[in-house]
Amino acid sequence: MPRRPWVGVPACCRELAGHSQHATPSRYMAALAEGAAVRPVLIPPLGEALDAEGYLDRLDGLLIPGSPSNLRPDLYGGPAAPGGELEDPARDATTLPLIRAALERGLPVFAICRGLQEMNVALGGTLHSRLHLLPGREDHRGHGETLAERYRPRHDITAEGLLRAVTEKKEIRVNSVHMQGIDRVAEGLVVEAVAPDGTVEAVRPAGARGFQLAVQWHPEWRFGEDPASTALFRAFGAACQGVAP
Questions:
Q1: Neighbours of 131 (CB within 10 A)
Q2: Which of 119, 97, 100, 95 is nearest to 180 (CA)?
Q3: In this model, does residue 34 exceed pLDDT 80?
Q4: Nearest-CA neighbor of 39 among 48, 27, 30?
Q5: So which residues are the catalytic ones?
Q6: Which tens digits make up the pLDDT trace of 55-97?
Q7: pTM (2 d.p.)
Q8: Per-domain boundaries in the chain
């Protein structure tokens, strides 16, 4: 049996019963274990206290998951957010340097939703803090009484580059559950997909060595039934094994 690679997953910092907890949604872990055939391991959001290089020395890949929280606007020069918005400064302080270090090493990186936004900000790009308030933009926050309704496919995207090569599809129907989105694409990132309203849906580092990709939607929700989602996790897992996409 081939060795299963180790993939790091930066955790979020959340409060439960008055205690600070490090956690990530279980769908990411299941998609990695079952869809990518890797061993996922949580990376605690410790910011500067984290030995990031030590983790990366031992990891075969990095998955940056989505989260209900938003990046702090001061990280990308945006206007201050109104009160009551969920933020996660501990995660911000952990993921941004971790992404930069992983990309520099050429480590396979798969970033999802907030992860795409973090990759863009980590490399110097900016975000729209509220896409739904922009003229001509759709409301991408996801609606429905149940999670299944919120995460159902919403619109088609046109895939290019690595995304198209991996999925073998030009048109992909994706879900949409996010409030922030890319404004200015970071120098050094290439746009791989755009939504009908112009929202950036996928990016990759220009000249990336292997699988380094960020998507705005949530392929972990349908990794076992949607061909494009299945292909993405399989390709990421293969890249962590050292197989080029």
A1: 23
A2: 119
A3: yes
A4: 30
A5: 113, 218, 220
A6: 999 999 999 999 888 899 999 998 877 666 788 999 999 999 9
A7: 0.91
A8: 6-240
